[in-house]
Amino acid sequence: MPLILILWYISIIVSMFLNYGTAYRLTRNGGDNGIALFGWFFALAFAGIVPGLCIWLWFKHKEI
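Structure (tokenized):
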């Protein structure tokens, strides 16, 4: 497997961990229930496809 695919796969795994924290923070600010948490996690999972976008979102919402 090429090195670029391995690095992209690792960045997606790291993004999923960061997505959960970001989704939890966004859920806590809005509707505090499991459906909202799932919705934010699902939306942020699509952002995890783009390398670096979830890291930027995590830092952006960490200060809220």
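The chain has one domain: 3-62. The radius of gyration is 13 Å.
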